[in-house]
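Hey team,

Filing this mostly as a record. A colleague (T.K.) asked me to run one chain through the structure pipeline before their review meeting, and I want the input and output archived in the tracker in case anyone asks later how it was produced. No errors, nothing strange. Just documentation.

Input sequence:
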Amino acid sequence: MFKKILIANRGEIALRVIRTCNEMGIKSVAVYSDVDRKSPFVYSAYEAYALGGKTSQESYLQWQKILDIAKNCGAEAIHPGYGFMSENAEFAEAVEKAGMVFIGPKAESIRTMGNKTAARTLMIANKVPTVPGTEDAITDSSEAQKVARKIGYPVLVKAAAGGGGKGMRLVEKDEDFIEAVEGAAREAKAAFNDDAVYIEKFVEEPRHIEFQILADKHGNVVHLGERECSIQRRHQKVIEEAPSSLLDDDLRKKMGEAAINTAKACNYQNAGTIEFLVDKNRNFYFLEMNTRLQVEHPVTEMVNGLDLVEEQIHIAAGEKLRIKQSSLKFWGHAFECRLYAEDPDNNWAPSPGVIEFLNPADGPGIREDSGVTMGSEISLYYDPMISKLCAWGQDRKQAMERMKRALREYQIGGIKTSIPFLIRVFEHPKFQSGDFTTKFIEEYTDSLFSEPQEFSEIAALAAILGQMEEKKKVTLNTPNSGSSKKSNWKTVHRRNAL
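Output structure:
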């Protein structure tokens, strides 16, 4: 087993990996930008080294600098987290070439599944269901338009090297096709430095359901059940849950087998996720494979009791999978909400700033993966996610009630957040019934968003200030056991004696 691992990432995922390293007795190494110098993950790591710079380009994407730090400090492996270089095949190769272990898949698998057209071709060859469309990148818009007419509108134009909705266009009419292809190609070039796009039949009333898999280098692959990620905004996931309210045992078995076949087809190792779309007739289609640990992995952990980061590390160390498909048990239901520093009622405007007050939710069935504390700054330089708030219950109803309670308890001051919007989603009858699609937010805009409430904001601010005053009183009147500080017992006693 490794003795020291460098985490090439920041925020909550860096802290998440550090915690597992601590539990396994592995020394952790953090790297940080100028903006993150005072972040919790820096102080939690066994060692921490400055990268310098403020932007991603100046810091966490400086992979040669990260490699040099890893070699100099004696790290044996690098965990990339998600984002940044987690799906960068060149970085994975460079880590291996430098004599260290990349905690993730091999570069060949990243390349194959990172190119959407190559992945579609591989899935078709291995009889994994795919959405009808072009197998190769579009080189002739007129020829592609003939394909679109053949499969029927609406169609999606998608970036071959893309993700997260960038370089994607929905085309509903033939006369809009050429312009949509050109627009998607320009956006793909800007986002991924690759203007290749392809087309797929648009799946009606789609549900986004993905399967978590683990695979070792000895040929063993298991799936850990599904996550439903249909609550999305502009193709960005907002709420995830496990299991899905749509699947029954038969469909779950078929999709699980397809996920395992996908992993075997690309000779996959480590943790990965196979994403599918399920249509209104419960047909499922391969969408893409994410060759990394995903943001939403905690909901899978909560229903099967595994630590996915720990399993990643064991696999990277060359061990065989420690679990078998037949030994996996799923228990209860879990939700995850992504809390962002954004104002949903103001067109999701970013809300950077200093967190002046923070009182996270807690209690039965609640888990919070966060990388901030009171005084932390939400910077415009990085993703504005504050926290991943998860709730577990014995069934969907209990998990939902716990999440609603936790969202109402969660108090944060100094910035606007997506919490009010998330509460409205959980209170919505359609979401509660489990009868929704990826268009949920668009379809129920009127009931999910509200006009800015000037007086309610003032009331919320007053409540936070009131709590801060209460905390001051507790500090003065409540004894503590800290030996290095002035005793509050004595303070109270002296005050009473006066």
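Quick notes for T.K.: The two ends are 62 Å apart (CA to CA). The longest strand covers residues 221-233.
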